[in-house]
Design a protein that fits this description.
Elements lengths: L5 H9 L3 E2 L1 E6 L5 E6 L3 E4 L4 E4 L8 H6 L2 E6 L5 H9 L10 E3 L5 E3 L4 E13 L2 E13 L6 E3 L2 E3 L1 H11 L3 E9 L2 E7 L2 E3 L2 E4 L5 H11 L4 E12 L4 E10 L8 E5 L11 H16 L5 E3 L4 E3 L1
Parallel strand pairs: 13-18, 17-20
Antiparallel strand pairs: 1-11, 2-3, 2-6, 4-5, 5-10, 6-9, 7-8, 9-10, 11-12, 13-14, 13-16, 14-15, 14-19, 17-18, 20-21
The structure holds flavin mononucleotide.
């Protein structure tokens, strides 16, 4: 029998992109319980069945293992806080959120994308989890964008799409290019910045930056949009992509700066500085998020 590295296995499971749900029930003594789950799966249409996998380590495990009814709430993109609350908060997880009870008394969370009120169809032990299969008695859904989860971090397709749309407008596009724990920066009289170029309506921003880096002799893999800045006065947008260089070749006027040194150098503008310091922080945490906003404020997703 092969020995399975459980950490590696968790990482491999985590590579599957999912939505995020909160599963709720009420104990025999009337206590409301709930936990965040991404193991939700639709199972059957006729009869209408779904399943979710509660861990036997949950403090509320016995309630879910014995419950006659439960509810699933599919979270919307702006409900990340609720996901965090139901993944870790101690005490009454329902205290600070808006909810109502369904016909069985199970909490339905306001603002979710969909909810399903279920009676328990079957519970199947499966290792350190159970398969809790529910028969849907009632449900509702709307067309809000859902909250996504992948590799230990949240994402929102609504925001990704918005960022893509904005990046097709006229403006500037830049790249945060990483190689061996260093970033490729351009030195200007005002301070450091990232390599960037003007973009136009006919060529998407990602194509523009890829083309530009190639022309400069840089061999890079450009990945996702990292920040989109709106400049209302100029009616323009600047977008910055993450990229990884295959080698340490530099282009004229640019140099590699160690990521540890970034907090000590002068940048040409406050938005480039805040973006790169956020980059350092998020690299440390292992989860990169998307910023959409102006120089002073915006949303991080
Ligand atoms: C995105 C996400 C998905 C999760 N999915 C599950 C799951 O499917 N099953 C599960 O038992 N725990 C899952 N968890 C962990 C539980 O939410 C967490 O262990 C639980 O809320 C702890 O509750 P307790 O303090 O009452 O034991 C998930 C956590 C997160 C952040």
């Amino acid at each position: 029998m092969s020995t399975i590295d459980t950490r590696e296995l968790r990482n491999a499971f985590g590579s599957f992109m999912t939505g995020v749900t909160v599963v709720t029930a009420v104990s025999d003594s009337g206590e409301k319980v709930g936990f965040t789950a991404n193991s939700f799966t639709s199972v059957s249409v006729d009869p209408a069945l779904l399943l979710v996998c509660p861990s036997n380590k949950l403090s509320s495990f016995e309630v879910f293992n014995q419950c006659k009814h439960f509810a699933i709430n599919i979270l919307a993109e702006d409900q990340q806080d609720i996901s965090n609350t139901f993944a870790s908060a101690k005490g009454d997880r329902f205290a600070d959120i808006e909810w109502h009870a369904d016909e069985n008394g199970c909490p339905i969370i306001a603002g979710s994308v969909a909810h399903f009120s279920c009676s328990t169809f079957n519970t199947i032990p499966a290792g350190d989890h159970i398969l809790l299969v529910g028969e849907i008695q009632d449900f509702a859904a709307n067309d809000k964008p859902g909250l996504g989860y992948s590799r230990g971090g949240y994402f929102s397709l609504g925001m990704e799409h918005k960022a893509e749309e904005l990046t097709h407008l006229i403006g500037k596009v830049g790249a945060i290019i990483e190689h061996n724990n260093q970033l490729l920066l351009k030195k200007t009289e005002q301070g450091y910045t990232v390599p960037q170029v003007s973009t136009s309506k006919d060529q998407g921003s990602k194509n523009t930056i890829q083309q530009y880096l190639k022309e400069k002799g840089l061999s890079c893999k450009v990945s996702s949009v990292y920040s989109v800045y709106e400049n209302p006065e100029a009616q323009a947008f600047s977008s910055y992509y993450r990229a990884v260089a295959d080698n340490d070749v530099v282009t004229e006027g640019c140099e590699y700066v160690s990521i540890n040194e970034l907090k000590n150098i002068q940048f040409c503008s406050a938005d480039v500085q805040s973006m790169l310091l956020r980059y350092v922080h998020e690299k440390h945490n292992g989860v990169f998020r998307l910023y959409v906003g102006d120089e002073k404020s915006g949303d991080i997703h």
